[in-house]
């Protein structure tokens, strides 16, 4: 960006390139240059968690069924995910982020916002911070990242995806208007495929068309999203980069390759996930009041069951409560497609607040 002006923030959005797939290609040279998808088996309801850029040329994208990915790219190499490895690399990357600025807002394992208006390198240009940071990420991990630099989060995120992989795009204040003029309406936050179709049906094709659209018509089309979209269409986004949100819950879930009907097998799955949740609490030095299980039957009906008592991170306590909650479902009599366990109402102490209405609630359930 140009020499900083008064009051202008320098926001980075940094996004690791095809993160899971790139880690696998880094660690296995035989995969380099090949179309790689990280995810589950195509014949077991697997989905694509990440796709290498070689796979993307065939139309393979994250979140699509792996069976479809294989049809799109018959030569696709499928690698089962190793999340412990990805988390370890992510920790390396985020340590680099935090060595520059405390204002780091994680979005996922592989992307974050950084406010580098003030930074440890005392570098006044966001572009130079981004360039040096990309070099340090490559040196530390052997991986590439793409970065966007802009005066706000909205523009920085768009910029980071502009020249992937290994890209660096800067939207200086004087370039904002020309940049916005070229963007499709899909670039707006909150505009997915369905909303984009609604907008285009009203003749709203480009981001800047939002500005001149009658506000009543826009509200009829997108509801309460209208005011926010008009603000973004002007390139305005006052949201601050917020460092490390306190975790409100943690858990895991698993979709099975085949529907489970054996209640003992289902209990075993719940048991393992509950122990994982207890382990997470111990590592974070936190306690949880509420244990929740999630069950999705084979007709996709999904229910949750919860139990709340005094704060704990005792593994056996959490396992006992999670397994007991299973008795309040139809698991075993109805085929089960997915189960999950999570812990909520977190605290740093074992002592419950005396006026806390959540303490010692009876078992509860909701759809």
Show the helix and strand layout.
Blueprint: E1 11-16, H1 19-27, E2 36-39, E3 48-51, H2 53-56, H3 66-72, E4 77-79, H4 83-100, E5 104-108, E6 111-115, H5 126-141, E7 145-150, H6 153-160, E8 168-170, H7 176-181, H8 193-201, H9 209-212, H10 215-222, H11 226-233, E9 249-260, H12 263-284, E10 287-297, E11 302-312, H13 315-326, E12 336-347, E13 364-366
Report on this model:
The longest helix is centred in the last third of the chain and has 22 residues. The N terminus and C terminus are likely disordered. This protein has four domains: 100 residues, Alpha-Beta Plaits (2-Layer Sandwich); 64 residues, MutS, DNA mismatch repair protein, domain I (3-Layer(aba) Sandwich), CATH 3.40.1170; 51 residues, Orthogonal Bundle (DNA polymerase, domain 1), CATH 1.10.150.20; 118 residues, Dna Ligase, domain 1. The N and C termini lie far apart (50 Å). Strands 5-6-1-7-8 form a five-stranded mixed sheet. A five-stranded antiparallel sheet has the order 9-12-10-11-13, with helices on one face. By secondary structure, it is α+β, with helices and mostly antiparallel strands. The protein is built from 13 helices and 13 strands. The radius of gyration is 23 Å and the shape is globular.
């Amino acid at each position: 960006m140009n020499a900083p002006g008064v009051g202008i923030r320098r926001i980075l959005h940094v996004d690791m390139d095809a993160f899971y797939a790139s880690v696998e290609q880094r660690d296995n040279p035989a995969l380099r240059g090949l179309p790689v998808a990280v995810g589950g088996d195509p014949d077991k309801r697997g989905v694509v968690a990440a796709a290498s850029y070689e796979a993307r040329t065939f139309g393979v994208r994250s979140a699509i069924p792996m069976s479809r990915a294989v049809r799109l790219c018959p030569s696709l190499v499928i690698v089962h995910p190793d999340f412990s490895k990805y988390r370890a690399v992510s920790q390396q990357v985020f340590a680099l982020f935090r060595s520059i600025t405390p204002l780091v807002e994680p979005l996922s394992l592989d992307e974050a916002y950084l406010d580098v208006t003030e930074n440890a390198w005392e570098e006044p240009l966001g572009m130079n911070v981004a360039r040096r940071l990309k070099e340090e990420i490559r040196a530390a991990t052997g991986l590439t990242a793409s970065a966007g630099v802009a005066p706000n989060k909205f523009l920085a995120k768009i910029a980071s995806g502009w020249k992937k992989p290994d890209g660096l795009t800067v939207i200086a204040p004087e370039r904002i208007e020309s940049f916005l003029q070229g963007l499709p309406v899909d670039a707006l936050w909150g505009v997915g495929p369905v909303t984009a179709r609604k907008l285009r049906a009203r003749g709203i094709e480009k981001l800047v068309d939002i500005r001149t659209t009658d506000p009543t018509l826009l509200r009829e089309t997108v509801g309460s999203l209208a005011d926010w979209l008009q603000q973004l269409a002007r390139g305005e986004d006052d949201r601050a980069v917020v460092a490390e949100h306190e975790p409100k819950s943690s858990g895991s879930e698993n979709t099975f390759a085949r529907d489970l009907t054996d209640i003992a097998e289902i209990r075993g799955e719940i048991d393992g996930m509950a122990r994982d949740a207890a382990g997470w609490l111990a590592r974070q030095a936190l306690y949880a009041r509420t244990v929740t299980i999630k069950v999705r039957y084979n007709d996709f009906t999904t229910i949750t069951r919860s139990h709340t008592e005094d704060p704990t991170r005792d593994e056996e306590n959490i396992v006992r409560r999670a397994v007991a909650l299973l008795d309040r479902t139809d698991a075993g009599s109805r085929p089960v497609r997915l189960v999950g366990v999570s812990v909520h109402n977190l605290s740093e102490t074992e002592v419950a607040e005396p006026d806390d209405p959540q303490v010692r609630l009876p078992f509860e359930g909701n759809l």
